[in-house]
Amino acid sequence: MSESAVQIIARGARAAAESAAEAVDADVLLEGATYSILEEDEDKGIWRIDGFPTTNDEAERMAAILRDHGGLEVVVEKLADADWLAMSLSGLPPVEAGRFFVYGAHDQGKVPEGRVNLKIDAGAAFGTGHHGTTVGCLEAFDNLLKTESFQKVLDVGCGTGVLAIAAAKTGTPIAVGTDIDEPSARIANENAEINDARCDFYFADGLSDPRIAQHLPYDLVFANILAAPLVELAPEIGAALKSGGVAILSGLLRTQEERVLDAYLPLGFVVEQTIHHDAWSALQLRKG
User: Fold this and answer.
1) pLDDT digits (tens, 9 = 90+) for 146-182
2) What is the DSSP string of 225-258?
3) pTM across the whole model
4) Which CATH superfamily is domain 89-287 in?
5) CATH code for 6-78?
6) Is 18 helix (H, G, I), strand (E, B) or coil?
């Protein structure tokens, strides 16, 4: 890409930051952009959004949305030319979530014994394990594995495939994933091979794809996506689960929990656990 790389930094009150993050999520023209949101200064109540648009148009649109929300201080910084992937890899420490240890190639020598080790490098697909949503999903899954086993697991919006790979590495014989982004499905299959995990990932739009439907019903469904598609897919996710099955939902902000639950509770789901990391939530629901 010939356009200049920039980072957008916005600081302000939590309510304004979360509202702005929801607006970025809802904008279909910013689907290619990524961002993080976290509490920067607890004493002063300051929250921070770091946005990483992929084009100049995305940069202008994201900056405008952030400036439009409740007094956020917004700064756009030009990034110097560099190998950003290599730099990001060197700055990502391993992640521990219960029994799971997620690491990149740069941490090959730090892999501990007696853990479920998942090698996932940063790249074009979401889900290295460092994001609060992915950590929450792995923590919820680790808790479940203390008392249950899962024969069939589906990972909706699989990204790097880390969640389905975690299932396969802990004894699930049928672990499949789907993503509407073709490169993500390809990367997930590559990661499954790297981790010697028996998984299949498919580029597909929706859960009615025959390659996904052939394994219905599932014991557990991961969906680490965004609040809007979680709501939209509620009937499909509900139909894909067996009675008593578990849905682990994430990609949503704390402020979006009620909206998501409003879509699932009427379908017979009950809340078993809620995990928070920074502004993000992971919901563990069971189909009654």
Assistant:
1) 999 999 999 999 988 999 999 999 999 999 999 988 8
2) S-HHHHHHTHHHHHHHEEEEEEEEEEEEEGGGHH
3) 0.75
4) Vaccinia Virus protein VP39 (3.40.50.150)
5) 3.30.70.600
6) helix
